[in-house]
What does this fold into?
Amino acid sequence: MDSPGGTALLAGRRVARIGFGAMQLGAQDAEVLRKAVGNGVNHIDTAEFYGDGAVNALIRAALHPYPEDLVLVSKVGAEHRDGLVPAQKPGQLRASVEANLASLGIERLPVVNLRRLDVGPGLVAEGDQRVGIEDQLAELIALRTEGKIGAIGLSAVDAERLRIALPAGIACVQNAHSLLSRESAALLRICRENGIPWVPFFPLGSAFSGHPKVTEHPEVRAVAAELGANPAQIGLAWLLAEYENTLLIPGTANPVHLEENLAAGRIRLDAATFARLDGLA
It folds into this structure.
């Protein structure tokens, strides 16, 4: 079976470079998950706080018992309590890992991303939720030593804290990043220097300020027309070409959009086209 976008290593395991972000899935979307895995996706990004546990429950219902090569990546650092709130304290991180293990029906999470609140968009830590990354990493390292998690990643982190975290052994970094929004460029440079997989979220932009919609840019649309692709595929193909260890996790509940996202891995941008797009940010 072909691996969409080719492959790269994540926490020592080989995964397709186009994975799947499960955040927006609803209870009726099991077939989209099965279709993704059936088409070579073996990296799924989730969190217990997505849908207040509903997304993890859906993954378990749709895919358990899990294929041997499937890498489930979860996230800790927030929780539902009358809405989504920060959960940055070490004890809260441990409780979230335990909740993910229970809801996914597994004994070990291959990768857990620490969702820091250093950079936007979204939640902001205040008061006693402003926790030093050293204390958080100590708890995650303990969980790794206990065998409850396999590797530690970071999400929504700044460059200073990423450098502090490097000695802990960082498996991947997730930050907002797209063809048109590159405020995380310093993070990407550190990942390049250390061979760390880069997992951009909002790869096509978002409704948050400062993250313009890639698919609406006229030059992206022009390149798409020239290559017989759609604008979303061009935005994803550019990200794949930017760094060999980029792992994409586009999410969708639409089976047609899923097929289109996976097909982006077959698009090859020549040097001139890549440079043309690269100059848009």
Remarks:
- The chain has one domain: 17-209+245-253.
- The two ends are 35 Å apart (CA to CA).
- The domain at 17-209+245-253 is CATH 3.20.20.100 (TIM Barrel).
- The first strand starts at residue 7 and ends at 10.
